[in-house]
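Now read the record:
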Amino acid sequence: MTMTITELRRILVDCAGGEDLAELGGDIAAVEFEELGYDSLALIETAARIQRDFGVTIPEEELVEVKTPQELVDIVNAQLRGAA
C-alpha cells in the first residue's frame, strides 16, 4: 500500500469541509501548504485523517517541518514501506 498525491488531495479537500478548492487543482506536489491555504491546525487534522485511513502516525515535530504535499506523501510512504 502506498499513498499518492491524489489520495492526499482527497484528504485535504475532506479536511477543508469537502469544498473542491481551486488551489488543490493541478500539480500541487511541490506547492507549499501555506500557499495552498493550509496552516498547522489543518495539517494536524490531515495527519489524524492519514492515521485513520493509512495507519501511519506522523510525529508532531516531524509534521511541523513538512512544507509540501510531496514531502508528506514521502513520509507516509516511508512509514508504510517500513511496516511491510
User: Anything to note?
Assistant: The two ends are 9 Å apart (CA to CA). Residues 75 and 84 are 15 Å apart (CA to CA). The chain has five helices and no strands.
